[in-house]
Amino acid sequence: MCGIIFRSILFAAFVPNCFNQETEEVTPDLFPYQALVSGYYYCSGALITVQHVITTAHCANGTDEADVYLGFYGYPYYEDNRNEEQGQIIQSKEIIIHDNYMQISNKQFQDVAIVVLSKPAEITLYVQPIDLSTETPSLGAYAKLSGWNAREDNNLQYYPVELYDTDICIYIYGSAFLQSQLLCFQKLTTASLDLVGNPLSVNNKLETEEVTPDLFPYQALVGGYYYCSGALISVQHVITVAHCANGSEEATVYLGFYAYPYYEKNRNEEQGQIIQSKEIIIHDNYMKISNKYFQDVAIVVLSQPAEITLYVQPIDLSTEKPALGTYAKLSGWKTKEDNNLQYYPLRQYDTDICFYLYGSAFLQSQEFCYQKLTNLSLDLVGNPLSVNNKLVGLLTYNINCMSYITTCITDNIIINLSQFVPWVHEQIEIEINSHDSNSSKTNKPTHIKQFKNIMPDSNKRMINNTNQRY
């Protein structure tokens, strides 16, 4: 379990360990408001006017004066790093601690202070004030925490974080979390920055994004008893969720469409392909128990191979579950007549958070859950989730948060397809062998050759190495 607590003005107050990405070094001008305040302690801060730096009160408290370092790339605690031409060192004129600052049982209240500089900072490419935000960031806001590690050879760095829901903050930190004054963020890295007072800057929240028609060429709509999304994984096979395909003997598959092809008027797009199913293969062990789906995968075998174009192409299945903090894209349509293909970004939650949100409804062995970085949603199940152009999962269903979660984040439960890759390959091999046995060696169907050429080499090797069923 991990996270970061921030003061409401967005300064790091407490940083436990977590997650997989590392800090990123920056160019010297990327955070021109970054400051180091040296008094009784050394802490970070941010230049908010040419003559004022904001920092944490518990760092500045008890100090009558301080040196402020601005514009430095190397960690200026060390004298050897203070020779940078762009750096400025300015003495404080006054240190103003919040009137109501106090510490009770290691909890800091009103933990802000302002260092008044003895002279204005010179505005350069490397030294510039930053505006204070007047609003609390929205859930899913992408933020950057910048600062130094306390080593002589360390340069200015940052790492990415994203805002947690208040209920999760209380779950992680209990009564130590002061909801009225603090925010807590998911830390998307195992690395950390050593100082308190590191400034956090926030960009605008992400929304769903419309795409060009060729950006997700594997996107499919499967129309049977229900309409669901899916993904083309070979020229003749589409993967989708079993609870959508179950009960349907046949289906119509729509490939290459930009507008939502449920509506007939949207089926006239020149690049679109409409292909009937030949067979629908439901996972042998698929079942539903108390609104929970197990082995929730199915393969739709097309009656003819899809034509490979700019707008219709299979996607490789990932054989590994993505790492925590991985950026992923969920693509699909909203069920409106005038809606075009869209996607929104997601980041994977820690397993403990998934259990906290969903309780026993979360199946750790087959699923993972993601934080949605947007308030918008895509309506269909089966929407494919891709990471670096590999298919990692399918949206299986949205489930309600536990009853004690008062402000539930709109998250998604995703089928972990890496667990089903051997089963998928086994079914496709059975399908190929079935065609082979019904065809002469000289008249082998062309779509079989085409599929074998498209399947990645790493996936081909797996076909003959497993009889495992999930």
Automatic annotation (TrEMBL):
Keyword flag Methyltransferase: no
Tell me which PROSITE patterns the record gives. TRYPSIN_DOM
Domain (Peptidase S1) spans 9-200, 195-429
The signal peptide here is 1-20
SUPFAM superfamilies to which the protein is assigned, alphabetical: Trypsin-like serine proteases
Cross-referenced InterPro entries? Peptidase_S1_PA, Peptidase_S1_PA_chymotrypsin, Ser/Thr_Proteases_Immune/Dev, Trypsin_dom
Its keywords, alphabetically, are:
Disulfide bond, Signal
Look up the coiled coil feature and give its residue ranges: none
BP-aspect Gene Ontology terms = proteolysis
Example of a GO MF term: serine-type endopeptidase activity
Signal found in the keyword field: yes
* PANTHER family named among the record's database cross-references: TRYPTASE-RELATED
Instruction: Describe the family membership recorded for this protein in Swiss-Prot or TrEMBL.
Output: Belongs to the peptidase S1 family. CLIP subfamily.
User: What is the recorded name of this protein?
Assistant: Peptidase S1 domain-containing protein
Species per Swiss-Prot/TrEMBL record: Rhynchophorus ferrugineus
